[in-house]
Amino acid sequence: MIRETFPVGVLRCNCTILGDEAAGEAIVVDPGENIPDILLRLTAQKLALKQIIVTHAHIDHVGGALALKRATGAPILLNQNDLPLLAMMGEQAGWIGAATPEVAPPDASAEDGLRIGPGSLAGEVLHTPGHTEGSISLYFAPQRLLIAGDTLFAGSIGRTDLPGGDSRKILRSIHHRLLTLPEEVAVIPGHGPMTSIGQERESNPFLRQAPR
Ligand SMILES: [Zn+2]
Question: Is 90 exceeded by the pLDDT of residue 81?
Fold first, then answer.
Protein backbone atom coordinates (compact mmCIF):
# COMPACT_ATOMS: atom_id res chain seq x y z
CA MET A 1 0.00 0.00 0.00
CA ILE A 2 1.16 3.51 -0.83
CA ARG A 3 0.10 6.15 1.68
CA GLU A 4 0.81 9.86 1.64
CA THR A 5 -0.76 12.18 4.21
CA PHE A 6 -0.10 15.91 4.05
CA PRO A 7 -1.80 19.12 5.25
CA VAL A 8 -3.68 21.24 2.70
CA GLY A 9 -5.12 24.76 2.89
CA VAL A 10 -4.94 27.41 5.60
CA LEU A 11 -6.66 25.15 8.15
CA ARG A 12 -4.13 22.39 7.35
CA CYS A 13 -6.67 19.62 6.75
CA ASN A 14 -4.95 16.23 6.46
CA CYS A 15 -5.38 15.00 2.89
CA THR A 16 -4.51 11.35 2.29
CA ILE A 17 -3.63 9.47 -0.88
CA LEU A 18 -4.00 5.69 -0.56
CA GLY A 19 -2.71 3.61 -3.44
CA ASP A 20 -2.62 -0.04 -4.45
CA GLU A 21 0.66 -0.16 -6.36
CA ALA A 22 -0.13 -3.52 -8.04
CA ALA A 23 -3.40 -2.21 -9.47
CA GLY A 24 -2.02 1.30 -10.06
CA GLU A 25 -5.15 2.73 -8.46
CA ALA A 26 -5.68 5.29 -5.72
CA ILE A 27 -8.27 7.08 -3.64
CA VAL A 28 -7.88 10.59 -2.28
CA VAL A 29 -9.51 11.47 1.02
CA ASP A 30 -10.34 15.10 1.91
CA PRO A 31 -8.81 17.15 -0.94
CA GLY A 32 -9.61 20.47 0.74
CA GLU A 33 -7.18 22.50 -1.38
CA ASN A 34 -3.79 22.28 -3.18
CA ILE A 35 -5.16 20.22 -6.07
CA PRO A 36 -2.08 20.76 -8.33
CA ASP A 37 0.10 19.25 -5.58
CA ILE A 38 -2.25 16.26 -5.21
CA LEU A 39 -2.18 15.66 -8.98
CA LEU A 40 1.64 15.78 -9.00
CA ARG A 41 1.79 13.23 -6.20
CA LEU A 42 -0.56 10.85 -8.06
CA THR A 43 1.51 11.17 -11.23
CA ALA A 44 4.78 10.60 -9.36
CA GLN A 45 3.38 7.39 -7.86
CA LYS A 46 1.88 6.30 -11.23
CA LEU A 47 -1.57 6.02 -9.68
CA ALA A 48 -4.91 6.50 -11.43
CA LEU A 49 -7.48 8.14 -9.17
CA LYS A 50 -10.61 6.01 -8.76
CA GLN A 51 -12.52 7.68 -5.92
CA ILE A 52 -12.57 11.02 -4.11
CA ILE A 53 -13.90 10.45 -0.60
CA VAL A 54 -14.84 13.37 1.63
CA THR A 55 -15.21 12.68 5.37
CA HIS A 56 -17.64 15.60 5.83
CA ALA A 57 -18.77 18.74 4.01
CA HIS A 58 -16.71 21.36 5.84
CA ILE A 59 -14.94 23.72 3.44
CA ASP A 60 -11.43 22.72 4.49
CA HIS A 61 -12.14 19.05 3.62
CA VAL A 62 -14.40 19.34 0.54
CA GLY A 63 -13.19 22.61 -1.02
CA GLY A 64 -11.03 21.06 -3.75
CA ALA A 65 -13.10 17.94 -4.47
CA LEU A 66 -14.84 19.26 -7.59
CA ALA A 67 -11.58 20.58 -9.08
CA LEU A 68 -9.96 17.18 -8.47
CA LYS A 69 -12.94 15.43 -10.08
CA ARG A 70 -12.69 17.68 -13.14
CA ALA A 71 -8.98 16.91 -13.47
CA THR A 72 -9.29 13.14 -13.09
CA GLY A 73 -12.88 12.07 -13.79
CA ALA A 74 -13.02 10.28 -10.43
CA PRO A 75 -16.40 10.28 -8.66
CA ILE A 76 -16.96 12.10 -5.35
CA LEU A 77 -18.38 10.20 -2.37
CA LEU A 78 -19.88 12.15 0.54
CA ASN A 79 -22.52 11.05 3.03
CA GLN A 80 -25.91 12.47 2.02
CA ASN A 81 -26.61 13.74 5.54
CA ASP A 82 -24.05 16.49 4.86
CA LEU A 83 -25.85 17.87 1.78
CA PRO A 84 -27.31 20.79 3.80
CA LEU A 85 -23.76 21.76 4.85
CA LEU A 86 -22.53 21.47 1.27
CA ALA A 87 -25.26 23.93 0.30
CA MET A 88 -23.85 26.43 2.86
CA MET A 89 -20.45 26.82 1.19
CA GLY A 90 -20.72 30.61 0.92
CA GLU A 91 -21.49 30.88 4.63
CA GLN A 92 -18.65 28.47 5.48
CA ALA A 93 -16.22 30.55 3.43
CA GLY A 94 -17.32 33.55 5.47
CA TRP A 95 -16.43 31.75 8.72
CA ILE A 96 -12.79 31.52 7.67
CA GLY A 97 -12.55 34.56 5.40
CA ALA A 98 -11.85 32.47 2.30
CA ALA A 99 -13.14 32.64 -1.25
CA THR A 100 -16.13 30.35 -1.89
CA PRO A 101 -15.02 27.22 -3.76
CA GLU A 102 -17.31 25.75 -6.39
CA VAL A 103 -18.82 22.51 -5.13
CA ALA A 104 -21.26 19.97 -6.55
CA PRO A 105 -23.43 17.22 -5.06
CA PRO A 106 -21.56 13.92 -4.67
CA ASP A 107 -21.83 11.19 -7.29
CA ALA A 108 -22.81 8.73 -4.56
CA SER A 109 -23.58 8.85 -0.86
CA ALA A 110 -20.87 7.36 1.37
CA GLU A 111 -23.23 5.19 3.40
CA ASP A 112 -22.35 3.10 6.45
CA GLY A 113 -20.91 -0.25 5.35
CA LEU A 114 -20.02 0.87 1.82
CA ARG A 115 -16.91 -0.92 0.54
CA ILE A 116 -14.27 1.36 -0.91
CA GLY A 117 -10.95 0.95 -2.77
CA PRO A 118 -8.30 1.57 -3.92
CA GLY A 119 -7.71 -1.51 -6.05
CA SER A 120 -8.00 -4.63 -3.96
CA LEU A 121 -7.65 -2.80 -0.61
CA ALA A 122 -10.79 -3.50 1.38
CA GLY A 123 -11.87 -0.27 3.05
CA GLU A 124 -15.23 0.31 4.69
CA VAL A 125 -17.25 3.44 5.44
CA LEU A 126 -18.26 3.91 9.09
CA HIS A 127 -20.99 6.53 9.59
CA THR A 128 -19.81 8.46 12.66
CA PRO A 129 -22.15 11.47 13.07
CA GLY A 130 -21.59 14.17 15.67
CA HIS A 131 -19.04 16.65 14.28
CA THR A 132 -21.53 16.88 11.42
CA GLU A 133 -24.58 14.73 10.70
CA GLY A 134 -22.89 13.15 7.68
CA SER A 135 -19.41 12.65 9.14
CA ILE A 136 -17.78 9.36 8.17
CA SER A 137 -14.62 7.49 9.07
CA LEU A 138 -12.82 5.04 6.76
CA TYR A 139 -11.56 1.74 8.14
CA PHE A 140 -9.02 -0.46 6.36
CA ALA A 141 -9.05 -3.60 8.51
CA PRO A 142 -6.18 -5.55 6.84
CA GLN A 143 -3.95 -2.46 6.96
CA ARG A 144 -4.97 -1.61 10.54
CA LEU A 145 -5.70 1.97 9.45
CA LEU A 146 -8.49 4.42 10.26
CA ILE A 147 -9.06 7.79 8.61
CA ALA A 148 -11.17 9.60 11.19
CA GLY A 149 -11.99 12.99 9.63
CA ASP A 150 -12.81 15.55 12.32
CA THR A 151 -14.44 12.96 14.61
CA LEU A 152 -11.35 11.88 16.59
CA PHE A 153 -8.04 13.71 17.06
CA ALA A 154 -4.88 12.89 18.99
CA GLY A 155 -5.92 13.87 22.52
CA SER A 156 -9.12 15.58 21.43
CA ILE A 157 -12.42 15.18 19.60
CA GLY A 158 -14.17 17.19 16.90
CA ARG A 159 -16.00 20.40 17.74
CA THR A 160 -19.79 20.19 17.83
CA ASP A 161 -20.74 23.87 17.99
CA LEU A 162 -21.10 24.36 14.23
CA PRO A 163 -24.41 23.72 12.38
CA GLY A 164 -25.23 19.99 12.41
CA GLY A 165 -22.92 19.30 15.35
CA ASP A 166 -24.14 17.14 18.26
CA SER A 167 -21.94 16.45 21.30
CA ARG A 168 -23.86 13.34 22.40
CA LYS A 169 -23.74 11.84 18.93
CA ILE A 170 -20.00 12.35 18.51
CA LEU A 171 -19.29 10.59 21.82
CA ARG A 172 -21.60 7.73 20.86
CA SER A 173 -19.91 7.44 17.46
CA ILE A 174 -16.42 7.38 18.96
CA HIS A 175 -17.21 4.95 21.77
CA HIS A 176 -19.37 2.56 19.75
CA ARG A 177 -17.71 2.64 16.31
CA LEU A 178 -14.07 3.70 16.79
CA LEU A 179 -12.84 2.69 20.25
CA THR A 180 -14.21 -0.81 19.58
CA LEU A 181 -11.57 -1.27 16.86
CA PRO A 182 -8.30 -3.12 17.69
CA GLU A 183 -5.95 -1.01 19.80
CA GLU A 184 -3.12 -1.21 17.26
CA VAL A 185 -5.17 0.51 14.56
CA ALA A 186 -3.34 3.67 13.41
CA VAL A 187 -5.55 6.77 13.21
CA ILE A 188 -5.17 9.63 10.71
CA PRO A 189 -7.25 12.49 12.12
CA GLY A 190 -8.63 15.34 10.02
CA HIS A 191 -6.00 17.67 11.44
CA GLY A 192 -2.76 17.28 13.38
CA PRO A 193 -0.59 14.25 14.19
CA MET A 194 -1.43 10.58 13.83
CA THR A 195 -2.39 8.48 16.84
CA SER A 196 -3.80 5.01 17.54
CA ILE A 197 -7.03 3.57 18.90
CA GLY A 198 -5.18 2.22 21.96
CA GLN A 199 -3.56 5.58 22.68
CA GLU A 200 -6.88 7.44 22.55
CA ARG A 201 -8.73 4.78 24.54
CA GLU A 202 -6.08 5.14 27.23
CA SER A 203 -5.43 8.86 27.46
CA ASN A 204 -7.91 11.02 25.51
CA PRO A 205 -9.35 13.33 28.21
CA PHE A 206 -12.62 13.77 26.30
CA LEU A 207 -13.34 10.03 26.35
CA ARG A 208 -13.09 9.23 30.06
CA GLN A 209 -16.83 8.81 30.51
CA ALA A 210 -19.01 6.46 28.53
CA PRO A 211 -21.74 8.29 26.56
CA ARG A 212 -25.34 8.35 27.72
ZN1 LIG B 1 -14.82 19.77 10.14
Answer: yes
How far away, in angstroms, is 177 Cα from ligand 1 center?
Answer: 18
Question: What are the φ and ψ backbone dihedral angles of 161, each rounded to 5 degrees?
Answer: -95, 0
**C-alpha distance from residue 8 to each of 11, 13, 20, 68 (Å):** 7, 5, 22, 13
Predicted model pTM? 0.96
State the distance from the centre of ligand 1 to the C-alpha of 121, rounded, in angstroms. 26
How many whole angstroms from its chain centre is CA 26?
Answer: 15
User: Which amino acid is located at 62 in the chain?
Assistant: V
Instruction: Find the 119 Cα to ligand 1 centroid distance in Å.
Output: 28
C-alpha 131 – ligand 1 centre gap (Å): 7
137 vs 123: CA distance, rounded Å: 10
Q: How far is the CA of 150 from the centre of ligand 1 (A)?
A: 5
pLDDT bin (cut points 50, 70, 90) of residue 212 is low
